[in-house]
Fold Prepilin leader peptidase/N-methyltransferase.
Amino acid sequence: MDALMLTLATVLGLVVGSFLNVVIHRVPRAESLVRPGSHCPHCRAPVRPWQNVPVVSWLALRGRCASCREPISIRYPLVELTTALLFAAVTARFGLTPELPAYLYLAAVAVALSMIDFDVHRLPDAIVKPSYVIGALLLTPAVVAGADWNAALRCLIAMAVLFLFYLALVLIHPAGMGFGDVKLAGLLGLYLGWLGWGAVAVGTFAAFLLGGLAGVVLMAAGRAGRKTAMPFGPAMLAGALLALFAAGPIVSWYGGLLLPAA
């Protein structure tokens, strides 16, 4: 992979991560993403351009507002860094291929939705629903370029299968998850379906495994009990990203367990 390409992807991720901080804060509050401009949540002072450089500005200001000196959460640069690392990893995974923009978009959505679900235990329709259309449109060039209509059909089937599977879980046990998880499941099915049925299986199983492990860790740390409501969206998104990068090796490993070499 060309170092310049990875560098550009990282820089793009930092910029997108800065915008995601706005999305994470404003979308749950049904606020405009455009107006007003970036400002301090404490004193409402506008953030000047030099104060809005991803990560660098937070470090230069020592994590405090330039006007009122109130602390600025470390979560802001962490969101930017996480997005940058994901953009670099996705670019390394796909290279300059037609599907790269689609999976960069998925990475950005994963960061935003995970943080929002942690904050308010919701997966906003304002992000999830349009992502179905955006995801399909971004994957269309890959379908056309490769004339891979079977993959396109697999995307649609996987989208329907995961949507219906999660819908059944909600109807059987409504306290376990919400309809936001159902809608997210369909979106992840669309993306995982492009990668293959192995990725669909790994992403789905990994979501429940990671969600369960997170619950056990929180209970062991005394941060949650058996009846504590915990967001499941981050586990679903983490499972999908795991499948994105490691579905092939995981499927091969599991297949080796089922069919050991003679």
